[in-house]
Specification:
7-stranded mixed beta sheet; mainly beta; globular
């Protein structure tokens, strides 16, 4: 059974840091482009960051560029999102996502990701 399980969310003050992890099982992790989306209260779900199969290429939404870093460890079937300089507007549920094995590039649209985790809450207080 394919599964993506996020962890590492929580409450942090503005300017602080959090590291999200996503453990994958039941999928060929190293053959998947991976990413993170987020959904703030009352807003649409949006792309945050993506990483290619080998980890050689990454892409970020303008809103997180320079503050967030996505990485992966294919030996551990895990993708990470290091979040620094957090702002109250980063408050959201963060979702780990995986593309199909046929996809080679990072995508930014929701319907281009085949697998989704259950989400982890990140709350940034001012």
């Amino acid at each position: 059974q394919e599964q993506l399980v996020e962890s590492g969310g929580g409450l942090v003050q503005a300017g602080g840091s959090l590291r999200l992890s996503c453990a994958a099982s039941g999928i060929t992790f190293s053959n998947r482009v991976m990413g993170w989306f987020r959904q703030a209260p009352g807003k649409e779900r949006e792309f945050a960051a993506g990483i290619t199969r080998s980890g050689g290429n990454t892409y970020y939404a303008d809103s997180v560029k320079g503050r967030f870093t996505i990485s992966r460890d294919n030996a551990k079937n895990t993708v990470y999102l290091q979040m620094n300089g957090l702002k109250p507007e980063d408050t959201a549920v963060y979702y780990c996502v995986a593309r199909s094995t046929m996809a080679l590039t990072i995508a930014t649209r929701i319907n281009e990701y085949a697998y989704w985790g259950q989400g982890t809450q990140v709350t940034v207080s001012s």
